[in-house]
């Protein structure tokens, strides 16, 4: 079965050869074609080449166009540092003086920053392999993007001292999100939502409800209005906000390795598909094929019978230096388990 055939059949309750499996390959794709991570900057053609090559090498079920979390914030004025051969990081927020917030404007995904190059990568990947595999484009959600506009520490203080400012930052981030999500869909892809700073490891469930949820829901409503399903990933601990994530409209929750997959299955698995959650660093990067196999089997044992379905995946994006043998081990384990899963 092709990945598209497999996902369609699995969603319809028809026979499949195995469960879908997505080791979330980001910048590891650079290693597949022997280039440096920094070479991806401003080069949509190279991103596409790497992602297609990685998919063809490993045979996973969803391609995700992603290099770092900062593409939208950078397009809105944030300063991003690009090491020669490491993942980019935030060097400076878009504004350092709150008086400058009013000058922030939503980004134009067809013009600003590196967004046009990411869209170019998506179009190229769809043209090459979109007939057989789903292609998604990563969208950094409103609250997280807002933290990159003023800095995470300052945003935390603003939630207490000036909540209206946080709402303004989330609103303008949402407008960028909607424009970018629309462009992703126009490119033939599906937006894949990631919201690292909405984690319980960073903010409380009450703060999530107040500052993140309203904008996240509007973004998901927009994507649904464009006839696309939504996978939502929030890093770290999330058990206290699973209900809200489902209420926001997510069709699939990508569960980080800090959360309990079996707990998620019993809490919300009757309403939403689950995806996860082999540890990307301790297991996929630092482990061996044998430890990857054991961790993958553990995930299958915990969630294979999730009523709304389960996708075997890493808990977050894989580190760049993840051994190829470990990625193959995850896929091979899922293939051997088959469907119905035999472990």
Q: Which descriptors apply to this entry?
A:
about 350 residues, alpha/beta, TIM Barrel, 8-stranded parallel β-sheet, two-stranded antiparallel ribbon, 14 helices, 10 strands, Methanogen_methyltrans
- Please provide the count of β strands: 10
- Total number of distinct structural domains: 1
CATH topology: TIM Barrel
Number of helices: 14
Question: What is the CA-atom radius of gyration, in angstroms?
Answer: 19 Å
Strand content: 5-15%
Describe the sheet with the most strands: 8 strands, parallel
Helix fraction by DSSP (H/I, runs of at least 4)? 40-55%
Termini separation: 21 Å
Overall 3D shape: globular
Pfam family, one: URO-D
Domain Uroporphyrinogen decarboxylase (URO-D): 3-336
InterPro entries: Methanogen_methyltrans, Uroporphyrinogen_deCOase
Protein name: Uroporphyrinogen decarboxylase family protein
How are the secondary structure elements laid out?
Blueprint: H1 3-12, E1 21-22, H2 28-33, H3 44-58, E2 62-65, H4 71-75, E3 79-81, E4 89-92, H5 115-129, E5 134-140, H6 142-150, H7 152-161, H8 163-186, E6 190-194, H9 205-225, E7 231-234, H10 242-247, E8 252-255, H11 261-268, E9 273-278, H12 280-285, H13 289-303, E10 310-314, H14 324-337
Parallel strand pairs: 1-10, 2-5, 5-6, 6-7, 7-8, 8-9, 9-10
Antiparallel strand pairs: 3-4
Helix pairs in contact: 3-5, 6-7, 6-8, 7-8, 8-9, 13-14
